[in-house]
Amino acid sequence: MTTADYVEKIPNNVSLREDRRLQRALEVWQPNFLTWWDAMGPTLPTRDVYLRTAISVDRDGWALFDHVPMRDYRWGIFLAEREADRRIAFGQHKGDPAWQQVPGEYRASLQRLIVIQGDTEPASVEQQRNLGATAPSLYDLRNLLQVNVEEGRHLWAMVYLLHAFFGREGREEAEMLLHRHSGSLESPRILGAFNEETPDWLSFFMFTYFTDRDGKYQLGTLKESAFDPLARTCSFMLKEESHHMFVGLSGVERVVERTAQVMREHDTDNVSAHGVIPLPTIQKYLNFHFSVSLDLFGGETSTNVGNYFTAGLKGRWAEERRKDDHQLNDASILVDALVDGDIAQTEVSALLGLNTDLRRAYIADCQNGVDRWNGVLASAGLPQRLSLPHVAFNRKVGAFASVETSPDGIMLSASDWTQSKDQWLPTEVDKAHVRSLMRPVYERGKIASWIAPPHNGINGKPFDYEYVHLA
Ligand SMILES: [Fe+2]
Ligand SMILES: [Fe+2]
Predict the structure, then answer these.
(1) Residue 391, SS3?
(2) Most distant CA pair in the chain: distance in Å?
(3) Residue list, CB under 5 A from ion ligand 2
């Protein structure tokens, strides 16, 4: 079960050959996927890329590293190993055997959850498609393309579930996943953050740090699902996802490192003229990406999500490590809210506040990266620090959608907001400066002016390894 079958047209560890109907259906979808990849995937022509490919879902040695032409990447279907006698860990079916099929009463909800998750995967490939043209190094270019092929594989993961368990409707939804496009007016991606542009590499690093991390938390709740194939798919996707967040964490860190270096060298905060990104601009990008990612968690309270939990469709972050009854019938939580026009907290049932619970786990995790970036500033002997803005800042979804606050969470009138927001969110001038630095560096071992080289290469290779052969 664990070793992927690469002899097959569609690599998989789900014994696809034993289900001819499903195999044929997916073989019909496969060329459509490749057509989408050619039309909407990375635009920079490459001969081959040093990529990792999943070969087994075991703890050790799950990936093979090699130079591969991107179009020949073996996108496939990999589920974490099936746990014998897995039991449902929460909700009203707690203690029952996990489901191997979709119960009729939850069919529509499960399909919706899978479609929403699935929609984000190709969306990010579309958002990032032009970044290769301005890669700061071959190392970074390789990381971008690695993230892209894996998001493509995550689409495969969700499409497998739709085809295998949701009949004709599932197949139609799988087609729609290739039909909607990021930023399209007629047929946009489902979630707001996935229709935003990723126009430069600072945005890319912020996206992989903050927005991929939202993905981690969503996958973490689906990994607990009573629907076992979904749980197993998500638990393997999480392994791939951690590299994406590493790209974001280390990417922003290297940007901060380079800026700090130049600030020291020239003894000035005003570093725009020296070919790097000023700290206030980095903070603005952080503010933007953090706040749009918070919106992805939905409203502070949600009846739907409470129902999903009770039904067993979606658990909490680290469900099994929680020390409570895993049903939450009598529990409560304080959620952020507007009370008489002020930012405050109100007590609601824990089921109703599950989005808040997940968002808080996410925010605490985001803070770790900020601490690390601040460590770079501290060791450069600089007094400046980066910080996460207040949960109410720049929100378009949830309790604070109707108000504006400063990054400290001070409520602002509409006119104060209009006057001040350029201090907190990237302006056209900031973006133009960042864009002006985005010139490609494709020479081995060389790197752009605005970012420090990584401390380690990929898979034990040095930084100056030929990670990508351009076409
Ligand atoms: Fe993903
Ligand atoms: Fe990702």
Answers:
(1) coil
(2) 68
(3) 212, 241, 244
